[in-house]
């Protein structure tokens, strides 16, 4: 279990002492069988005291024959490793014969899940909004025993069940239906915290490092930073970590989306990853972005009136920055693409015939899967 050993070793990702297990299961009253809906095992730094197994919340009714329950308990590190080995080698969650129904599970090698916004897995992981986490995942590719629950025709019912689960534990399976039936071992990165600010010269980043207070020796690391705009790299740099509390990276142009990664050299693991932008200045202005002409009817005749924004009025006084001009062009291109594919299109009243024509086209293209208007 090389991956387990490298992630668990004290001082690599953190200083783990126990594991919190949140088990969401489906129980069939007729067959008396238990099915895994989702199980999350989170490595924690608090000392292990006892298993302290308990059921959380009330039963969540699925239908007359089955309900969902939520259970939480704690394991020692040795017990957690035994669970992982059982899943990997024997495809079973429990080490003894029971009424627990096991599915065929695919072992997914370690993955680093960033704390960035928009990451679906963060809706089902625990508190992954600091430095991120590594996970080891056992994926239920078949989900045969959960077909009825995952039936697309019962999506509304499934989402209601997910809302009921969220009232008990902060796990939102509605945005991660593909993870139904899975087991995930989560290794939060607690060894390091990073704070970054842009230099006033706008050509670099000031990084502040806060290491775990139990760490005796700072690790050798590589720092990678890059700025990306319009899918082009404006600047990039890779440097060795100086093992100080602060380090200045002369990246170059910071006008784009800035990526920062910190890699541990031995073992080769990602300790930190972020993506975002820095505020160079702040202005408040109200105007209409790329305004559409307005149609008014005067004595039964449609009249088109162009709308002028304040931005257009002041454009002669102050030229737009290159990033604004590129962003505006990207907006126009994306708008044209959406209109051409009929993914998003606006119509005015006099375009009703064109709208009906587009609806007919959409129905012909998508009648097998339905059309949403």
Report the helical percentage. Answer: 10-25%
* Secondary structure tally: strands: 17
SSE series: HEEEEHEEEHHEEEEEEEEEEHHH
Count of helix runs? 7
Using only C-alpha atoms, the radius of gyration works out to 27 Å
How many domain regions?
3
Weakly predicted, low-confidence segments: none
Task: Describe the main β-sheet briefly.
Answer: 8 strands, mixed
**Overall 3D shape:** flat
Helix/strand structural class = alpha+beta
- Our measurement of the CA-to-CA distance between the termini, rounded to an integer number of angstroms, reads 51 Å
Strand content: 25-35%
Mean pLDDT: 86
Q: Could you please describe the fold and organization of this structure?
A:
This protein is α+β, with helices and mostly antiparallel strands and 373 residues long. Helices cover 20% and strands 35% of the residues. It has three domains: 2-188, no CATH class; 192-276, Immunoglobulins (Immunoglobulin-like), CATH 2.60.40.10; 294-366, no CATH class. A hairpin with a 4-residue loop joins β3 (54-61) and β4. The two termini are 51 Å apart.
